Amino acid sequence: MSLQHVLVxxxxxxxxxxxxxxxxxxxxxxxxxxxxxHATASPALKTLGETCHARGIHAMIIDVxxxxxxxxxxxVSSLKESVPTMDLVxxxxxxxxxxxxxxxxSITQISASAMQRIFxxxxxxxxLLAQAIWPWLRAKKPVVFASLSARVGSIADNRLGxxxxxxxxxxxxxQFLKTMAIELAxxxxxxxxxxxxxxxxxxxxxxxxxxxxxxxxLFTTEFVATRLLQLIANATPADSGSFVAWDxxxxxx
Length: 253
Hints:
Layout: E1 5-9, H1 14-24, E2 31-36, H2 43-54, E3 58-63, H3 69-82, E4 88-91, H4 112-132, H5 134-138, E5 143-148, H6 164-187, E6 191-197, H7 221-234, E7 242-245
Parallel strand pairs: 1-2, 1-4, 2-3, 4-5, 5-6, 6-7
């Protein structure tokens, strides 16, 4: 499919930025919407916006909190003005840890407030984004909605335990996306919804947990962006609702 009008959520982060940079180099690209919680304060996105301008691409850099409905409503208002159609939406926004937030090693470490934060971004964020841009997704034309999930969200593949909130939030995202794919297929048979596992990538999200990862299994953001965009390019409506890893392998729910 020809990618001309694309939105990247989480565009200031490692994988999101790498995907946005590769999209900006595509010859048919016309509109690139770059969203993140602090997108307008990102030097990397400012530079990418300038690169897009030099290539004749309309770059929109917009501050969006994917877990906040009013922030998403502001995004929609911006899109209505200048983006009449959408070919691809990629959500890379995610939350695993922070100054006062860490994956639980034991059930004794679970807290409702931490899980609410984890679910807000990883589970609710993708489906609220889809809801906000629903008119663009349901238009009867080819469109892909792809969101980063994680293998740890697979219930069937859970052999180590731990990471309660993150695992459950990604599993919830998967269910949201699967359900959405079924509804969207009825409205727009040309649509594709994908939950994508990028593998362990060298980003701020995974950095505290890389010690036990073999060098050959720790990927660069550029490698992951290339593989995920290839998956997206090769997907068909028959693949909609799938949970797929960076190497094209289907992951059990």
